[in-house]
Design brief:
The protein is an alpha+beta fold. It is 33% helix and 22% strand. The N terminus is likely disordered. The chain binds fe (ii) ion. Fe (ii) ion binds next to loops.
């Protein structure tokens, strides 16, 4: 851990307001705990949280965080993007990211601070939040693995194009509003098997091709401060920010179940290359053990060859 990151964990803002890691009050209320238990891991759901006005998530603290994170942990996009876009066609911005965050009401962009757990204070916050949900998660998909947090700071009306993410995810809205439109991950037209297989082999960007006729399959969920969305693994979605600047926190984890599904996808890609037409990995609660073990064995052989 670099000197600079430790310096942020001891930032005067945190000392001034007396922030200490480890929360005594639950962030997710009992009704949300029940709603999460009813939907995890396969269905989207709107949830609630009490994480408002947290000192680590103010604009000032986030601007400091942006200055402390490695450059490759920051994604910085202009706000006026179409729903579907080739990642190579996204225009670059000249404004520094720290300045863009501090002036988010007028900088016309959206910024993602990735893997915020690289800074110890944020790692503790992430662990505290996810620990509240572990009693639902662990019996179903195994222990929470690879805990990662992402903060989205967005200008009014910014658009995050159509894409998917490989993690289990809960998106908490902290300031402003946004509408996430989610699409059925099982629909081959909207979400081709080939894109998933190539993604797990590192050959496909998370952005997906968009067609206007997909709109009919979308389920829009709008969240305001105090609300959250459970986004199941690899559910395609796009996001429209509301008319005010927005801050959202995404708390994510992987699981043995999600790794096995990803490995089964990679194995299918190999079978397809042999001219076969493999069946899709089975949905939860199936665990795709045979294909994932086969892919892991194959990967091991390839590495040692
Ligand atoms: Fe996403």
């Amino acid at each position: 851990m670099s000197q600079r990151r430790w310096a942020l964990a001891e930032h005067p803002i945190l000392t001034r307001i007396g922030y200490r890691a480890g929360m005594s009050d639950a962030i997710f209320p009992p009704a949300t705990h029940e709603a999460f238990a009813a939907c995890y891991p396969h269905s989207p759901a709107k949830l609630r949280h009490h994480l408002l006005d947290h000192p680590l998530l103010s604009l000032d603290a986030l601007a400091d965080l942006a200055g402390a994170l490695p450059v490759d942990s920051i994604e910085y996009n202009p706000g006026a993007l179409p729903i579907g876009i080739d990642p190579n066609a996204v225009p670059k911005s000249d404004l520094g990211v720290v300045e863009a965050i501090r002036t988010i009401d007028q900088s016309g962009c959206w910024v993602v601070l990735k893997r915020i757990e690289q800074v110890p204070a944020y790692a503790r916050l992430l662990q505290d939040l996810l620990a509240e949900l572990a009693d639902v998660v662990t019996p179903r998909t195994g222990p929470m693995l690879q805990l990662e947090g992402f903060v989205f700071v967005s200008s009014p009306d910014a658009v995050t194009p159509f894409h998917f993410d490989p993690e289990h995810n809960i998106l908490l809205q902290l300031r402003g509003s946004k509408t996430m439109t989610l699409f059925p991950g099982v629909d081959e037209t909207v979400f081709p098997d080939q894109a998933q297989e190539e993604f797990h082999l590192g050959q496909h960007h998370r952005n997906l091709p968009w067609r206007e006729d997909f709109a009919a399959y979308g389920m829009p969920i709008t969240i305001t401060p105090g609300e959250a969305i459970h986004v199941p693994v690899k559910t395609p979605h796009w996001v429209q920010n509301g008319p005010a600047p927005s801050i959202s926190l995404s708390i994510t984890w992987r699981s043995e179940w999600s790794y096995a599904e990803a490995d089964a996808r990679a194995f299918n890609h190999m079978l397809r290359g042999l001219g076969l037409h493999p069946a899709r990995p089975a949905a939860y609660p199936a665990r795709n053990v045979a294909k994932s073990l086969a892919w892991r064995a194959l990967r091991k052989v390839r590495k040692s060859a």
